[in-house]
Fold these 4 entries.
Entry 1:
Amino acid sequence: MERYLTDRKRATGMGSSHGGTKHHWQMLVSSMALVITAPIFMVTFALGFQGSYEEVVAYFSHPVVAVIMALSLIVIVRHVMNEAVEAAEDYVHGIKGQLTIVGITWASHILIAIGLFAIARMAL
Amino acid sequence: MADVNRGNRPLSPFMIGPYYKPQMTSISSIMVRITGIAVLGLAVIIVAWLMLASISEQAFQALNWIVQSWLGDLVLLGGVWALTYHLLGRLRHVIWDFGYCWDVKTSELMGKGMFGLASVVTVAVAAAFLIF
């Protein structure tokens, strides 16, 4: 029995990344998001991290601050997670490399989840 | 070609130094990766600090005494430098990916700009905190 494969199907997964240019495109998109988000995050955080416990909680529970912090957390941590995954792809190989990538991905998402919970808990 | 030793050759990232002269293009590129991973470390501190703030004053003070100390200031200023440098480095990738500034001269100039601008922003933030 003959199999009919298109040229596209034959090429899929054959590159060194096995995943095409998806990761590269993701980095491009998150880089553009970072250029806007990171300065807003730095200004927002710098304006409110000093002071007493009451002042800090009052500042970070403001709706605008809470939304900026939540968005920054997602955009920045997901971007640097991909950055760390890229480094692992380059320097750590084999099963050790695969497990490192799994570890980085888990840890980053746990970080985002804890951060979002903390922001919501203060704001609500 | 089948007999060629493929196991013991130095790989490109480890060429810099003994075999390959450090250049603005390579060093500014490596720093993008290093600052990116540094920002992940900074995120751990900030999330821990937010989490403790959301629990109680006592929990908050367990970490805050160091975050609001001179050592915390230094770490956060390092974070400002790393995040600013990283975002400029990633902006350079976006510019490259859209097909501009591929020549060595402009690439080196952008590398110097990344180091310079990140340092200027960090000094400006430090000055702003000293004044206000």
Entry 2:
Amino acid sequence: MKTILLHGWLVKVFIVLLWAIAIAMRLTMTDDTREDLLLTIIAFSNFLLYLMVATRLPLLTHSKMAVLLPNYSQKLKGVLLLIFGVSLLPTLLVLPDVLTWLAFVSISILSTLVFVAMIYQPIYQIFIWLLILMPLPMALLDIPFNKEKLFYSLAWLLPLITWLAYGLLNKLVNYRGNQRHVSKIIAVTNVSMGKTLAVQDSIPFADRTRLAQWWANSHFNHYRNIISNATGASQKISNRKLIEISCQSANSFGVNAYVVWTVGITLLCLLGISIDESYHHFFTPMVTLIPAMIIGTGSITLFQIIHSKKSYLARLAILPRFKQHNSFASAFLGYVFSNQIMLYCFIAVLLGLTARVFGHISVTIYINLVLILLVYCFLTISIMLVAWRTVRDLGNLVVWLMLIGFIGTIVFTMHMASTDMPLLILNELFQTLLVTSLLLIAASSYQYLRSFSKR
Amino acid sequence: MACIVNVEGLTKSYKNQSVLNQLNWKIEQGDVVGLLGKNGAGKSTLLKSMLNINDIESGTISIFGEQYNQLSTASKSRIGYVPQENDEISWLSVNDLINFRKQFYCTWSDEKVTELVSRWEIDLTKKISELSPGQIQRVLIILALAPMPELLIFDEPAASLDPAGRRDFLKEILALVSDESITVIFSTHITSDLERIANKVAILDKGQICYFNDLDVTKENVVQLTVHYQPEQNITIPYLLRGKKFSQGQQGIVSQLDQAWLTKMKQQAVEVTINPMGLEDIFLELTA
């Protein structure tokens, strides 16, 4: 059970690395000036661990065999307690400050409850948004934040929190509810990184929530209309459109996604305009998260969906419609480029709009960010094309590379914002990177076309 | 013989569509029961409900004399189950999966695992997602047999197996059931498999076990009769399921062969021909 809950070496290595950094920091710490950083590192590493365990947990609680295997829930409870116990070891670095340590244990228990709850019941994801937005109502209502008081209360609340958590743990190990949502989580955690989003298409339509059904239907309706309207020769669907239709899935970033995000951002900006500028910085985490989420759903999803449809597209490519030399490959490239360029343009506009309203980034940083996104876009399209062209399954590798590149981009952006970096386009290293990414995308497109002309 | 499974008044429906309706069923120790039913008749639902994998609306189910949803650890150890669809974690290797399952049983037989793994040529290092449906089915069967259970429940166990694999699997089950204390329930569409190993046949139709009897008795009783008589004679065939008349008699299928009626026909010099039927035809007639 431990192996299943802690599956995934990359996250494990990262957590252990963070623990090691925390230990090194504690050993070299002479005063309490870096205590907050130490607490942050320990908390972040433990949150990662809890999130990892929480996402794997449905594989065990909702396994059909769970009700049949002897002593299953007791064993699961034991393993969960053991993992939680081990996760508390790094918190000992906080000692000899007993009060902080007790508060830390309370925070750890509460965070596990939230993580597990939001995995099983998506409604509890609201806790994360509340946490992000909490400073705003506190500032609006003029409630002072006092860390000492908060930690003092959490330390004294520990027995109550422990009692509550133990009760919920007993329920959790026997929990089999919310099958619809959990089946989606299981589908995602049951596959490798390269298929996490595409696999959701395999969930039967009837098993999806009403919202998901409506979302998928409204997305597909757009393409159904295109097909049903293409009756005469003049309305014939173009090759590119045909490929676009073939590459759609319930999770594709389509017209409805553009509309929803536009409406959401507009409302957020209207709120930003209507409130005092001094509160704008409370929105920074949210407006930073939104472009990241759009890239995740728009770029990684596109890759996974097309990757999962490789054999289908190969069959499509041999149809008489694509008998002209390279007509399929060029139409396919056209679709991928237009899709991604539209997505990144949309993100650039959103970034510009939010930057204008909330002022969280300067014009220079905005231009730099757009340039970085351009390079990221070129690089990701290049590696996507390599993966789609090769016979070997490079799905996992590509998604990991995209994620690592993405995290690297975010870290670099944060660094850029804090150091007030000048225009990147004037930087020789960046110029080299931009040219390299351009060469890479040209080379991978050429290779893709060549791979089709050989067939 | 002790009652191993007792189902009374089991009712279950999906989205207001009744699947099982006041179903009653009693299985005794040593029974090897083949469960037949049309597609969507509710065979899997019945087996899953018995094992508490599916929630039920009403009814009582007991296994080894205990409530199905409050089975003790000891009773759970005595049950082996092979589901129709694979539910195992796909990124685990076969070896990891076997080791994972082994943790739960003190009666686990490593010898059995080793023997079946080598006989069925299963690569222990391969991930579940890398196996073919037939190989996955074999792994699931190994997982169910390894704890040496006393009650084995198979949901379409041979559906994904090739003919050789099916024969091997049936041989394994035959060897198992030679021990009279072992009870086996298996749902299937392949009536030839059922005929080979089952001693009882159950037919699920319209939400109920509409037929449950010994296989031999079934084959002796459910037969096709051809009765030759004069038009002026008025003869009614008892237990007639379906029949058609012709100028000099009647042909039909009966659910039970009435010996007294046969004797009477003999006395009246009416010629009655009995044609035995295969299980597949019997099933089709009983559920028509």
Entry 3:
Amino acid sequence: MAGKPRVYRARAGEVLAGRMRSPPVITAALVRAEGRRVLVKQMELVRQRILSADGVPGVLSAGWETFELVMAVTAVSADRSADMYPAFTFARGSAVSGRNAIAFAPSMPASYAPSGTAEPVTGDAYQVADAVAALASALSARLRDAAGRAADADDRAACENAAGHADQISKLLAQRG
Amino acid sequence: MAGAVFGDFLAAGREHLEAAVAVRAGKVTPPSAIAQGLARLVTVMSRYCDELAPCDEAEASGRDDLHPWERAAIDAGTALHIAAGCLRRAAAQAAGDPVSGTAPQRARQLEAAATELAAGRDLLHTHLTVNPDGLMADRSDWASAVTSVPVARALANEIGQWSLRLAPFTAWLAGSAAAYARPDGPGQAVPASVRTELATASQWLQAAGAAIRPALDADPVRPADAELLRAIPAGTVPQRRPATAAEPVSELCDGITISASRLRGSTRDTADRARWSPGLTSGGWQWIAQAAAVTSHLSEMALRALATRAGQLPGPPISEAQLSNAADFMIGMRAAWHQVDRLWDVMITETRMLPTQAMTDASDLVLRMGRLVWDDPHWTPARSRRSALRDPAALAPGTGALATVVAAVHQSVDALARVAQADMEAVEAAGQAGRLYVPTRSLPADYDIPRPFATAPVSRCQALHEAYRAALDTTIQATRALGELSIRAGTPSKALALARAAATAQSRRRGSQPRPDDGIPGYPPPLSSTLFTHSRAATGRPGPVEEAIRAHQVSDPVMLMRAAAIDDAARRLILQAENARPASSPPDIPRPANSAAQLAAQSFPRDPTARPAAGRQARAAGHPTSSARRLTHRIN
């Protein structure tokens, strides 16, 4: 999904590091802090989009965007911690499956263009996992709600299926499964 | 995991053989039952040789491109066929002996040896099948080891050794039969010809053993050949053993071996199905790539723990540096599988992910590898189950346990190499069948497609293929590194490494290449309609070629054996030609001989009354192919 990023970019860390001209250790710490901030902002914005999505097509669009964000975040985070590698790898797989499930929904807007693609985020792997798990949990609830309201059987199936994948992400990354 | 291996049958057969041939001095034995058991055993041995031989003796006599072991298998097989014929006749002639009603212990041992050897042959056959074209095809990932030169070497040598063991015993049996059949002995009803047949069989058994010697001199059997032969397992997929909590390290390793074996089995023939089967999906392939990446990661961690442990243990079979080096291979392997995984992000099949057997087995593999590495018997990939690393001393308390864990890692990585190969071919087939799609918006702007997904461009399919190729290459490199460690440490997975190495040298066998049609148009019909009635294999009496060789005072058993085989092949050829002869051909008019073959044919004894008539009418109606003629003949 190589569209040009439009809204959310984690370039602030690099910009900040270049401007501050601080020693490497301090720079790294600032980059991590900035990365966390950007991540939290990204997650929060996407969560808001999920919650404010209107109708089945809106939830499907927000779901697509959420899964894409999860894919990007988990891909970058997998290598940060040996013990989290399996969880992030399989969570990314679930995000791809969830997004693909949504693609099969008849109500998914055909001309849908994502609002942005996440740039690599820095930050503590466990905090990233917490944030992604919470986001996936919110998405799951919204997708199940949309499934309950969908008139088309294929939409219902797509929402249910995608919700299952969101649950799986949450299960893999939450501190308490 | 303790499945049956070829060595089990070989060892049991050997035990029975040794018990049977242990000669008790002065003991007189009724020959009938023993000859029967011997005939059966020698027949089974001859079938092994038949399968190792690329052609028959008659064709081999005109070829100079045969490997010494191919020649040995042909010669030994011919000798064994003749010996079996002698033994069958001896058994039949001695059957009238009223005393031989109960089979003595010795006969039962021979029967048991034959049964074990036949079961071993059946085990080898589980790896091969015959395709619709009548050619031999692989049925398991061990097939290429079964048909390899090292296995052929070991097998032919084994049969040669058995022949040499049976030859003196058969000679002793001939002597015993003579004493038994004396006018004052218990077996007065046994004819003297029984002794002659047994004595002749003994000579042919000796010849079979002698036929192996030139090959042994030219290309000796390596210890690894025999080891590989004994380690060949049955070509069956083991029963799944789901992961349970609290499996100790040894059981985890057993489970990994089972999952790896099942995973290898599940990859067969996926390329054909990938063209059409909705069960094979992008989701499934991507999940397998993720599981492979995670398994690589866990394997690296296991090997690093083992490296640490090797540094602590006195005199480990493999050093810390060697294990660390193997662990380094896992990094490249993981990266390559990760790349495959990423490329699947933007490709999809027409159906969503459906669970497959390969996914179940890969899942078991991941779970058990994780439980080896992490100190939690309930470990899963979920974050909530993360725990501390297992203490290297608990992972491998001693050198034996260290070898067991190396074997488990070797098994899993080897299975992933198979998966990489199979998935690469399957995905390529799916792409060619137009089953791969990409999101339209991921394509350049000049693609005007009014649907969310479009057929994947060739460049994307090519990129995916190259990613799989890289995954295959890095996984094979890691497998080789682990194979070397396995051989060095003598781990239970050593046979895998030997099999992979052996598979590169394939033996030529009958059925592995198209057989020439015996009804080639334009070939002149046989000049003589003579039935070749005398050959060693048919009557036990020498045929004309063998007689001619003997007339030259030649006593070399191998040369005599070849002559006997040529006699027999000529007899069969002439019989076949008789069946195919057109009804309109003038009967038995001698024609001037203008070649050596024609001269030979004219010298054969004639027996027009024995000529089968079937087949002539079928041919008179038209000119069907030889295969059609054979079929008509069978139907009639």
Entry 4:
Amino acid sequence: MRAFAFSSEPLDPERHRAALADPASGGYASFEGWVRDHNEGRRVERLEYEAFEALAIKEGERIVADAVARFGVSRAACVHRVGSLGIGDLAVWVGVASAHRGEAFAACRYIIDEVKHRVPIWKKEHYADGDSGWVNCERCAAAAQPHDHEHDHDGAHAPAAHHARSAADPGRDFEHDYSRQVALPEVGTAGQAKLAAAAVLVVGAGGLGVPVLQYLAAAGVGRIGILDGDRVEASNLHRQPLYGIADIGHFKAEVAAGRLATLNCDMRIDAIATHATHGNIDELVADYDVVVECTDNFRAKFLVNDAVVRSGKPAVFASVHQYEGQLQVYRPEPGWPCLRCLWPSAPRDGLVGNCAEAGVLGPVPATLGAMQAMQALKLLLGLGATEAPALVMVDLLTLEMRRLTARRNPACDHDLDVSAETPDAAPLELEFETLAAARASGLELIDIREAWERRFDSPDASIPAHCPLSELVNGRAAFPRDGRYLIVCAHGVRSLSLTEHLRSLGQTEVFSLRGGLAALRA
Amino acid sequence: MIDVHVQYFAVLRERAGLSQETVATAAATAAELYDELATRHPFNLPRSMLRVAINDEFADWSRRLGTGDRIVFIPPVAGG
């Protein structure tokens, strides 16, 4: 079957599915879009789809081919209806066959999202009150590729004009105009070529990572890796405006990759939707020229530090706390301190507060992230070579910036990995699929989230034993000693820190719930 | 007694309830000064977790203080 096709006849999912059958595939995912009976509060009775097929098929085929290449699936296809459809009719079908289910779901999601964004298809809704209108031209609203045309969503929306302009859309033939940065004598065409040849790994696509990703992609960095295993949460949006409401629940790495692709069609993006671990960090760091560390926890920061020191790669670190931020560049050169030179006893997460515990205004990580992007560009362009190593402290309440000269610590091991779990010791983390399984483990569950985090727990998901981390840190509460405990928080970061801390105090029967409550099935 | 200028950041600023102060102290070293200040402010971080900078340069805790020194106590921060 064709990778992308239109049909004026009703779609037959069974037939399409059979066409994807492949003995090497162990998984199949599909998406069906149905005609629904309402839109924006109006009753819809039927609708019509129109497409400029020659152009739309080309774009559709490109999307399916991208998905196959990007997610490594065996086969994929998409069929879209045109013509007149009634309520409940199948409007679009996407199917993906793959060796494994994860890629099948991801590719399926990618294809339907991109088709809705990029393929020029128009929908005319006929309402119960006799009125009708062309709607939902997502290409107009939020195209995945740069384009410009008037917005005209009334009945006179003119597909012809639309097509003509779409055909002239820059898309993949778009030539980026870097003239405003090439004009800088320190950049020039040679500098631009350096950026195009460079690869940057951004660890963490949150408040710091978002501006880093946006500015590096916009500047024409040739390849960007986005390493983040988190999914977008509603509480992220105020400081991570690369993401939107519809992205909640999706992997940040994948959503960010999609957005960056709309900003720069020359670059390659590696969406790595997993956390940095001892097992993967060295291999990842080895694959890039510069690492920008944008996570919100010490474990990851020191993990990245140790990997860049071992591999001799430069890195840019930053962290924020409420209205303040710290920025540090590491160069693999004599005299340059690493993160451990400055912080010889790797701090424990949870003791100094992260964004969830301490609060933060969006422009604070945005400012520090923009500074990180600038430092990364300087490293790639060979600027700032005379800069002395320092920790830069920024206070956005007082608008003061302070540069504290830092030196390499002769006593520092630089990549001493004290946080590594030794194989002989009992594991710090335990993994459970459900809360019931955790309860059945024989360990007593203790919730260390703050009271406000527990407000929305459903009654059957509640954990009676509550000991907020802030109370422990302040010394207002003590962690119980006689028993075997499974420490639980939202994502498993704070619980792991506390577990490490308690183990260091000699309490052996404590464990952290890996991934926290977010990792559990209901 | 010498007068030194002290600045606090992040959790230390919150705990001290102020971002800077001028202190008359008999402390000879940065370590003694922190321990002295910790009796006046409810600091919850052990000195081993902090760094100190004197006159815009990272310094050892054993560094002798001089009158007029600008001292910054820096906790690590992790938010992102």
